Amino acid sequence: MTGAAGYIGSHTALELLSAGHDVVSFDNYANSSPASLARVARLTGKAAEIVEGDLRDAPALERLLGNGAYDAVVHFAGLKAVGESVEKPLLYYDNNVSGSANLLRAMQAGGCRKLVFSSSATVYGAPERCPITESFPLSAVNPYGRTKLIIEDICRDLAASEPGWNIALLRYFNPVGAHESGEIGEDPSGIPNNLMPFVMQTAVGKHDSVKVFGTDYPTPDGTGIRDYIHVVDLAKAHSAALERIDSFKGAEPVNLGTGKGRSVLEVLAAASKAVGREIPRTLSPRRPGDAAECWADPSRAKEKLGWTAERDLDAMCRDHWRWQSKNPSGYR
Ligand code: NAD
Ligand code: WQD
């Protein structure tokens, strides 16, 4: 697992270790710390093997994968801050795109051709309608999104060039929540851009109020609609993808969402219920680049993976709040 120490990686490591897999973590801790994996080891009673390394270090990847000992690679590692990607596009192309090319080259050399890749609903750009199926047109609206699109294209080209690749391109919608133990969760560095971590940090007093970006969208309550998905459901989808990876012929996309769109005001209401008091909010202008609605048609995930999301918005908020209130400063 590349990026195993991160938010989604740590939850997936927990899931895979619990299912009896042996896990090797490859992470440079650019946006995480080994503390998350130490907690995963405590929760599961089984430790991942830890390798500190950078995707941009091609020889390190070749050494790691060269022994042919791996059944599959789950590739989470990447930078994911949209705003930063606009300011530092070369950092994103180097880290995410070149890093992924290095990984694929090392897999090819080591004889491992099974990959589960963290793609994103951002590859649908500004979708014309919802729900979104995997056959919708692809486009990028910022450099981060373009890195995901390019990596998907590299995977498709590679699989077309050589038989035997099994690649699951998992397109996540909006991951939120935390493991129900409250021991692992999302630990954003700096001020979070994403709604749920900002809401929960506001609830612990780190911010005065949540800005509701846009109240005049053509949606029932005027605020933006997204498909929030519990990170534990997402982790289980990775486990299912690994179990069925042989059914992926070449590189095939699968949406990972619940199929239910929720508005910003609905999230604030559910979060306030979980926290036990009203979370302060300020009605604000739209954030540039935001779509009114983005939610998945998750039927292919059900067909291909035998997986559907089980946890609702209340569970997402309850579990995210448990993590945030037990760990107001994350892993620090
Ligand atoms: P995260 O930042 O918590 O985890 C990413 C991990 O990758 C971190 O541990 C980081 O240290 C590591 N990493 C980054 N660059 C690296 C490099 N060059 N070499 C080695 N390790 C490196 O992010 P996350 O939320 O867990 O996301 C995981 C993946 O899912 C990312 O690829 C992200 O783009 C994708 N994704 C995330 C979301 C989301 O909203 N969280 C949505 C869609 C897709
Ligand atoms: C959700 C909704 C905002 C913050 C981003 C990336 C995407 C993907 C997931 C990785 C929107 C509103 C937000 C706030 C608000 N990441 N909002 N106040 O924009 O759907 O997707 O994260 O691949 O690429 O673009 O997620 O959590 O930022 O926003 O009102 O303080 O909440 O307008 O409607 P988004 P988000």
List keywords for this structure.
332 residues; alpha/beta; Rossmann fold; 4-stranded parallel sheet; 3-stranded mixed sheet; 11 helices; 16% strand; globular; binds nicotinamide-adenine-dinucleotide; binds UDP-4-deoxy-4-formamido-beta-L-arabinopyranose
Secondary structure: elements and pairs:
Layout: H1 7-18, E1 24-27, H2 35-44, E2 49-52, H3 58-65, E3 73-75, H4 82-87, H5 89-110, E4 114-120, H6 143-161, E5 166-172, E6 174-176, H7 195-203, E7 210-213, E8 225-226, E9 228-230, H8 231-243, E10 250-256, E11 262-263, H9 264-275, E12 281-284, E13 293-294, H10 299-305, H11 313-326
Parallel strand pairs: 1-2, 3-4, 4-5, 5-10, 6-9, 7-12, 8-13
Antiparallel strand pairs: 8-11
Helix pairs in contact: 1-2, 1-8, 3-5, 5-6, 7-9, 7-11, 9-11
The chain binds nicotinamide-adenine-dinucleotide (NAD) and UDP-4-deoxy-4-formamido-beta-L-arabinopyranose (WQD).
Residues 80, 82, 120, 122, 174, 193-195, 198, 210-214, 224, 226, 264, 287, 290, 294 line the site of UDP-4-deoxy-4-formamido-beta-L-arabinopyranose (WQD).
Task: Encode the helix/strand succession as letters.
Answer: HEHEHEHHEHEEHEEEHEEHEEHH
Q: Number of folding domains?
A: 1
Termini Cα gap: 23 Å
Amount of beta strand: 15-25%
The helix count comes to 11
- In the predicted model, the low-confidence regions spanning at least 5 consecutive residues are none
- Tell me the Rg in angstroms: 19 Å
Describe the structure.
This protein is an alpha/beta fold. Helix 7 (195-203) runs parallel beside helix 9 (264-275). It has 11 helices and 13 strands. Helices cover 40% and strands 16% of the residues. The protein is globular, with a radius of gyration of 19 Å. It has one domain (7-326): NAD(P)-binding Rossmann-like Domain (Rossmann fold), CATH 3.40.50.720. A 4-stranded parallel beta sheet has the order 3-4-5-10, sandwiched between helices. A 3-stranded mixed beta sheet has the order 11-8-13. The structure holds nicotinamide-adenine-dinucleotide and UDP-4-deoxy-4-formamido-beta-L-arabinopyranose. Nicotinamide-adenine-dinucleotide binds next to helix 1, helix 5 and strand 4.
